[in-house]
Fold this protein.
Amino acid sequence: MLHVSHRANSVLASPIRKFLPMVLDAEKKGIHVYKINVGDPDIFVPKEFWRGLKMYKEKTIGYAPSTGIREHTEAWVKYYKRIGIKLEPKNIIPTVGCAEAILLAMMAVADPGDEVIVFEPMYTSYKGFASMSNITLVPITLKIENNFSLPDESEIVKKITKRTKAIIVINPNNPTGSILSKKEMDMIVRIAVKHNLYIIADEAYREIVFSQKPTTFLSYINAKENIIVLDSISKKFSCPGTRIGSVASFNEDFMRAILKFAMVRLSAPTLEQYGAIPLLLNAPRLTKEVTKEYKKRRDIVYKGLKKIPGVFCTEPKGALYIIAKLPIANAEGLVEFLLKKFSYKNKTVLVTPAEDFYITKGLGRNEIRIAYVLNTKALKDAMDILQRGIRNFLM
Amino acid sequence: MLHVSHRANSVLASPIRKFLPMVLDAEKKGIHVYKINVGDPDIFVPKEFWRGLKMYKEKTIGYAPSTGIREHTEAWVKYYKRIGIKLEPKNIIPTVGCAEAILLAMMAVADPGDEVIVFEPMYTSYKGFASMSNITLVPITLKIENNFSLPDESEIVKKITKRTKAIIVINPNNPTGSILSKKEMDMIVRIAVKHNLYIIADEAYREIVFSQKPTTFLSYINAKENIIVLDSISKKFSCPGTRIGSVASFNEDFMRAILKFAMVRLSAPTLEQYGAIPLLLNAPRLTKEVTKEYKKRRDIVYKGLKKIPGVFCTEPKGALYIIAKLPIANAEGLVEFLLKKFSYKNKTVLVTPAEDFYITKGLGRNEIRIAYVLNTKALKDAMDILQRGIRNFLM
């Protein structure tokens, strides 16, 4: 009997798969399902992308250099320069989405059995990549009641062992929509420097912040060697299907390691690297537009949730997500109910049970995550339907 | 002091990087460098690709499903049906090039410390991916004098231990240009079934065969559970920069594992999945054209090498590579010489020292690999220059 690997077994199947047949069944019955479960926005990719794509005039489509197509990598450098960070091309390598950046960065800093500290709830792909690369994630639980703010320094330091290699932070955060305060960022940097740890900062949602300016850990010049920043064009320019991200660091040993990994897998897609150039060069204008739109949506979702009796949530400060605590023991049951047994005017709504965003077993069962990826009109309707659905479920 | 991981240290830097500054220096001096060192062809991508790309009419660029865009995955299914293999969409998942297929397949069958049998010389990325995923490659050395044919069954079986999970075969082969005989394929299948091993068959060059019909391990229906086939549109359709490959298997446990990994990294690029559809649907015609061209090139390179005194090589049967044994102790010295100290009519040539294609230390030092990725006229000139260069080097 052939077996798959333990690491394959340890990756959990995405909960989305479980609900997909239910969604299809509902749709077959003529029910419209508002999908606010994943971060796949309905916003048009800026026309600049198509303009960038047309810059590609070759009749061959060769491998891009593993270091990135020169103009593309330089566009990232210029993009970072605008936010005050002076990278050289050797400090940044384009990747196949932020996803690949996560895997390569984890593999570059940690060996099998090594530990990385994370804050839960967290973007689920980290769990999968940790399983694939045999790295142990050590979770520190953040509470919705505390606005998902970080605990005291001592609580974090307690988790550090001889095998700890890095702290992962997602800022702005998926799935919580929270952002780190200056004080929290300072603390993370202080801990990393003191305990000789890398900071892997996933800043894919950097510009999508509603009442602050975008920040980056790369601005901590006193911790240059410690900081690794992962980025992506997917969310800030509404084009996740292009699969273009990046990994940046002033740590030259680390970047050499990433380059070696990058050369093994050859290159990120050639055409999209061109498409991304005018996006990166026009980032301030384009990200301002998209953030304005997400702020409107945030308001609708937040207000919509606050109206539902028994629901607890705090106002998201960034990204395109919110977590809400429900007056329900098991959110998965609600999601199933909404898809299989409920509809209002032939419409229903798909949200994500938050359990999968936690590492610690049993947490998040009464929470859901909403991704505000629909236009304001659809979102208003979806929130109304969610309210009716919850009421019905509790009857 | 921060360190990178052991696995990062264990990945060798690509030898291409070492020669790049020398190439740039030569080019600065006005010397044209014929680059026949990597499998990045000069052949135009078929116009069908651009037609496929235009099928994409959306104004958003969302994530593709992890299982692939339906029409794209179905195009793979149709492509395989034409060569006699009846896959269902659940048996195949598109990947980010064959490169990602290699990494995911290795991770799905083996855990850190597990062993995989390979035949050296072999495509170098396997070494890198094995380091990244902490899998031990157990090499069986093939000899140029034996036309790189496989050893007896007993020689292979000898290498199997309790930790052996798979045998990797690249067919047609990069870097040797050899193809497996029916007898060799039968033997590999027999061993795999008997010893409960996966066969990871990298068939990216399937159609590029010069005197036989394309084959695939998927045709062994008696070993359905054992066989994993990696594929790519890069070489057969001359578009490596699109980063579209696939992994296929009738083993449902294995495909479930791959799907879980695929979901963690979300998706392969959306636009190129569309571009690939008409390529896959027109595979017989398009691959016939490209193979005809490579056959002409193969003849030029093979004849060119045979003319050089002291050089030994055998006629490649497929792919776009040839390995040649030189009357020189260290091929790396020759490559440096050609770039730094030699030119003929202001031209020189870049080939790859074959040492890096071996796992066993010390092997391949007197061998080079040539990728016949230039048009016939350029290739003739390059071979003439190589002959003159070798003569000069030996003087």
Summary: Chain A touches chain B through 77 residues (CB under 8 Å). Chain A has a mean pLDDT of 97. The radius of gyration of chain A is 21 Å.
